[in-house]
## 1
Amino acid sequence: MADRFAINRLPGFTAIAVLAFLALYIPIITLVFFSFNAGKTVMGWDGFSLQWYAVAWGNLAVQEAAWRSVVIAFWATLISTTVATMAALGTTRRRPFKGQTAVYVAINQPLMVPEIVTAVALLIVFAWVKVQTGYQGLGYLILAHSAFCIPFAYLPIRARLEGMDLSLETAAADLYATPWQTFRRVTLPLLAPGIVAGAMLAFITSLDDVVITEFVKSAGQDTLPTYMLGQLRRGVTPEVNAISTALLGLTVVILTAFFLLTRERR
Amino acid sequence: MGVSVAGEVTISARNVVKAFGQGAGAVRALDDVSVDIRQGEFFTLLGPSGCGKTTLLRLIAGFEMPTEGTILLDGTDISTLPPNRRPVNTVFQSYALFPHLTVAQNVAFGLEMLGKPSSEIKARTSAMLALVKLEAMAGRKTSQLSGGQQQRVALARALAPQPKVLLLDEPLSALDLKLRKEMQIELKRLQLETGITFIFVTHDQEEALTMSDRIAVMSAGKIQQVGSAKEIYIHPRNRFVASFIGETNFLTGTAEAGALRLATGNRIEVPGLAPGGTATVCVRPEQLRLGRPEDGGITARVRSLVYFGTDTHCHLALSDGTEIVARLQSPASGEAGLTEGQEVGVTFAQGAVQRVED
């Protein structure tokens, strides 16, 4: 295939690729590197130390924000994955219906509408609800996160459902399984990797959201990302580097698991 | 054969119509089909693809509902019951084995859904695995099995709940020839051992002829003929059946009283033929006898000879251009004693000429 067009044979391909990777990873590497700095400044190396991790770990505000992030991400994942699973079943396990494309667009709306628009819209609606009900809890953030996590959960679940052999469900029905038993014993187990993958994507999407959280949160409802944003207004500290590195580690772990789960599909 | 009396009707389709689509664009996959399938028989639905045989099977299984007509099981109308409430099981063309379950779990699935006690499930699962000779594979995942083994699991899984009727949708089509021959014998053995009514769908006429007690030949959404392999082969009712099952020669001419007058002037005896109009008869190639032209018969010229080992196919042309084939058993010398271009007199074996409708 020597004469076939191959982009990696174009002159300068390697140079551009290396440059792109450097541009992407130098900032991250720098951030990770200085999170282990013993000194107080961000740009001057004073030797290796884990002290900033200890500082972050001991910081009550960090602990609180991290816990809040996890709680919100947990509930948002649960809600969005459940809704996404039902939506995926509804858009694949029935005859095509009128307005199917519209439904598809509606489900994936958070991927298309600028986040700042959703944030402002939610801010207005939630402000009104707060006045009406007096409720100030985490519910608003959980609802908001659930909404924008749905497409992230929906897409891998739908992909899994579309790749599934429909005759398996027919076979279950033929073998005396009721529609519910067919779902429980055949569809759901086969769908599980897709659901777990969708849940993972939803979880990290919720975990690192800033824009919508910043708009929707009430006083004292900082999540880890909004706490970090608040800290950065007073200058970058190695402590923020340490938190960022920890978040990065968590994301890499979850994304690797996601990749392994979706790749395993036969 | 169990408690039921052989010969009793198990499945009865009455004036079944299945249309797909709406209005003018609707396609009639089944067009007024009526058939009775007897308890304990190996019944085959045979026809080319698109003839409606799989649709009829899916209607019996409950995967589709008839547009018109009814389907009875032991006299009870089951037309609108969902598949899980019909005591029939299916062996799918793709096998449709559950990939997340082991072989034994696949076989046990139907029994579990029926809520059988676990001791019975265990016993029946082992019995079924023994029946299909897969005891050693009980703990394997189905993806670790060969095509033939998967086929056996599909059979065991469908037979385990002891259905009244087993439906088989072209189950052998994915297997290679040697394995298919083995499975044909295996299927027949299973049917005899279990005494369960088998309804088998295939487009392979040889498969149908060798395995079935009775065959329904289908075409264009209709059943063309129902009968034993012999009946269908020897007395095909119409042109479609005659040409779909085996090879045959068609001869068309003018109907006279008890005979057919060909364009060549020859007269073929066809008992019962009423005079008037044109009529068609068929004769199987192995029923042709070739002699010397001066000894009588229809004069024909040998166009070509094709040696097939056990027999030789002799392609002949009649004086009006009609082409026919004679299949002659090869003599020990291997020479049929014929040469291309030679003239012969063609006669037919007693009773071999069959009137067919168009």
Note: Chain A has twelve helices and no strands.
## 2
Amino acid sequence: MTDNLVLRVVAKLLIPPILLFALYVQMHGDYGPGGGFQAGVIFGAGLILYGLVFGTHAVRSVAPPRLLAIIASLGMLLYAGVGIASMIAGGSFLEYGALSLDATHGNHVGIIIIEIGVGIAVAAVMTIIFCVLAE
Amino acid sequence: MIASHLPVLQVALPLIAAPVCVLLRRGRWAWAFTTIVCWGMLAIAALLLDQAMGAGPISYRLGGWAPPIGIEYRLDGVNAFVLLILAGTAALMMPYARQSVEQEIRPERQHLFYCVFLLALTGLLGIAATGDAFNIYVFLEISSLASYVLIALGRRRRALTASYQYLIIGTIGASLILIGIGFLYAKTGTLNIADLAERVPALGETPAILAAFAFITVGVLIKLALFPFHLWLPNAYAYAPSFVSAFFAATATKVGAYMLLRFVFTVFGAPFAFGTLPLKEVLLSLSLIAVLAGSLAALFQTDLKRLLAFSSVGQIGYLGVGIGLASVTGVTGALVHVFNHALMKGGLFLAAGAIAYRLGATDLSALHGLGRRMPFTMAAVVIGGLGLVGVPITSGFVSKWYLVQGAFEEGLWPVALFVLVGSLIALAYVGRVIEAAYFRAAPEGGEPVREAPWAMQLSIWAMIAGSVYFGLHTDLTVGIAERAAAVLLGAP
């Protein structure tokens, strides 16, 4: 589809807002609808659209699958790391309230970090699945 | 401080270790790391069992949320015992894994293999540790998805169809369990197992509870691979990589048996399942058919791994007999058999894998003369096989002793008879293996075959020696199993 001018222009116009919207959904997740999984899917969809229009080699050069596998693992470790951190802070596993002296504040911080972990893991895995299937 | 966190560490440790394996990028490093993690988990499981047997059930609040709203990990004698079996099997099998995986899995995938293995282990441990019905389903899916991947990695292309078949049947089973849990939640408004155990019997024989019972029981029986739901098992075990066959033969169906025990005895209660509903008749007849059909099918196999897989179908029948008897002796027999069969069948599949490692095949005809050429591996096969038959001094005898005793207590002598007939058939199929290996001459002009590497021998013999040790020293296994059975049946 790389020779289709309309598609290329529209994709170029759409991809940046899609990625930006993913970040919005990510950061807005603890106030309203959204969160890490949705954000990750939207971000992954942006990369997949890029791959559909410009070819898998393009998406591979932006986000090499090797790097994506590392990012996905780091996302999962970020999630589990919050669980361990809250245990070290004196709570039970994933009891984020223990992360700060103020339980509400601790919950806030814990959820944001966990959702970031989920977000980058989901975005990376979505893109890996696309790259594997597109081969 | 750490002691109070052990229940969650048991499940979280392999979950955290899995992505680390991806980051390590080298098969051998991932193997070393996985080995350390597995032995750490065995230590945790031993400490937990000690705590659970000593001070009664351990409760852990995940995320600090109090049950029944939050997820609770609740360990009593039953699941602490299952955790020990799972962690122990994984730890004992790890020395075997390195060479076996290096031969069977492509180098660039080896670190990912250990990642998926740890995820499967996480799922199995999670099912056993959690005290939340929906959490059981989540962990069931984690372990199942990981096991589809592991089985599909087998060397032959038929591994893919075997894995696909398991995927379809396994997904149906898991969905049925989920529907059943949904019914329970709709009627009781709770997912906590201890809470369900109080509310479900009070509801009695309402249609929703009956439907929940039917869905959950059938779903679990599919996962347990009890006849007639066993169709996925032989292919999955026969075509999976050697290490995977051995690990799942020793663990996956055992967790299925645990789920059956937990749902039938704890959630629904024995009076409902065995008094109001005819689960006893259904389970006993299916199990006895499984014993006979599985063992007979094993008799006609020409491949060692398939023979062992069909033998597993038969051995699962014994678990079903013990659970179906619904008495302390019967359930003790089932729990002891869970432990003993994990050791015997794990060791046998490891030995079959070692033969495949040297010969590249496990056909019975390829085994000719192997008694001389791979003496240690074949000796392990013989001892493990005698355990399947239930010869005294092997641990298989102990579990069958309790099953037969349980059957006589209930006055069900035909059940005892079937158990013994099953053993005779087992003697026949083990005899075929022995005949091929010891009484047939090696093919002439064949390449010389060396004994399996010592690291693989170590794992094989750890499992087989364990099965003999626990045949002689039954205090530990039977003691724990008796108390666990008493907990399940609500006896003091």
Note: DSSP finds five helices and no strands in chain A.
